[in-house]
Amino acid sequence: MRVTVLGCGSSAGTPSVEAGWGACDPDNPKNRRTRPSLFVEHAGKSILIDTSPDLREQLLRHDIRRIDAVLYTHAHSDHLHGIDDLRGINRLMSAAIPAYMDAQTHASIRERFGYVLEPLAEDATMYYKSTLIAHEVRHGERFQAAGIEVTAIEQDHAYVGTLGFRIGDFAYSTDLIAMHEEGFDLLNGIKVWMLGTFTDKPHPTHLDVGRALEWIARVKPERAYLTHLSFGLDHQTLQDTLPDTVFVAYDGLGVDV
Hints:
Number of strands: 14
Shape: globular
Structural class: alpha/beta
């Protein structure tokens, strides 16, 4: 399995409009962060996790021309608002794309981007809009996405629930402040864990670095990667403080699992 970090930034990205580079060294290219999306390739199939507002740029940068399934963690704008950029993939594949999400995200997409969930007009000769086929998944459910087994893990993002995903020996957990014991149980035995870590100080809706490291010590993956990083976290400064098996993610990072 190959996992590519398309975007490891927070909702503001780095540099951000309001703070520029913040604490990040502008001379280190690993500090330039687009909004969060992840691309997973396995057994000839590919899964996109979240449609970042920067998705067009990310697809072009990595020459991604096929997406067999989309997984949504939740419906916040930094994880959803690139949804229209899937139209080009629809056209390249001449097919709608199955998308997997919880009921809350499904309802939000239907309210805000309902046209994406509607079929093309009967006389359509091309994909004139992004087109997804929505599938609701429940917390703890094991399901097939593009023939790949995925487990949905319930997460608490304070004001909204989110989904983490386990795919084989890999797990992706972002935008969370707490997790039920059942969620930790579903992470047993993973080899690689990518964990959203917004800041180095306690935060009401996101994990901070210290708490993330406590969770990593509990789950004991072979390797862990910190992602969804704010402009307050410089890549090298943070990396220098981490254990040998924990790494700071960056846009374009490729991880073999």
